[in-house]
Amino acid sequence: MNKATVFIVVLLIAAGGAWWWARNEVSLPVTHRDLIVVTQPRPDQVITSPLEVRGRARGNWYFEASFPIDLRDANGRKVVSSFVAAQSEWMTEDYVPFSAAISFTPPATPTGVLILHKDNPSGLPEHDDEVRIPVRFR
Q1: DSSP H/E element including 101
Q2: What integer pLDDT is reported at residue 17 of this predicted model?
Q3: What DSSP letter does each residue of 24-89 carry, written as one string?
Q4: What phi, psi does 85 have (nearest 5°)?
Q5: What span, in angstroms and rounded, lies between the C-alpha atoms of 72 and 55?
Q6: Which distant-in-sequence residues (6+ apart) come within 8 Å of 108 by Cβ?
Q7: Residue 1 predicted with pLDDT over 80
Q8: What backbone phi and psi angles, to 5 degrees, belong to 4?
Q9: How far apart are CA 57 and CA 77, in angstroms?
């Protein structure tokens, strides 16, 4: 094979991989300040009810083994509020897996945002933190 043929084959393989990546909506997990990693949903994923929310968070993201989440439409209106539960011992500095299934009625807007809030029982603003994941509604 000459160099031109090899180049064309490599180019076709790369284009096919890019097409597959885009077609399957593959994206990296959302990571926020080494405190939380959200593996489901992914950014700009098309979501349906019930929405599966999964990942892992450091123990200090939780309080009493849970933390609050909100799903909002593109106008910032709340679609649903719920909690995510730790799947193992949460009183640690290590990552603790979490999951939840949230039922909702799709809003009129085609897009929205899932907000995972660090639980803050003190109510002090300096202890607030959150991660926002853009989503698309079906």
Answers
A1: strand 95-102
A2: 60
A3: TT--PPEEETTTEEEEESPTTEEE-SSEEEEEEEEGGG-BTTEEEEEEEETTS-EEEEEEEEESS-
A4: -105, 140
A5: 20
A6: 73
A7: no
A8: -65, -40
A9: 26
* Prediction pTM value: 0.79
Q: Which residues fall within 8 angstroms of residue 105, CB to CB, at 6 or more apart?
A: 49, 79
Residue 99 identity (one-letter amino acid): S
Tokens of 88: 């193992």
Q: Could you tell me the two tokens for 55? A: 């990942």
Distance CA 28, CA 44 (A): 11
Could you report the per-residue pLDDT of 25-65, keeping only the tens digit for each? 456 778 888 999 999 999 999 999 999 999 999 999 999 99
Tens of pLDDT, residues 4-25: 787 777 666 777 665 555 555 4
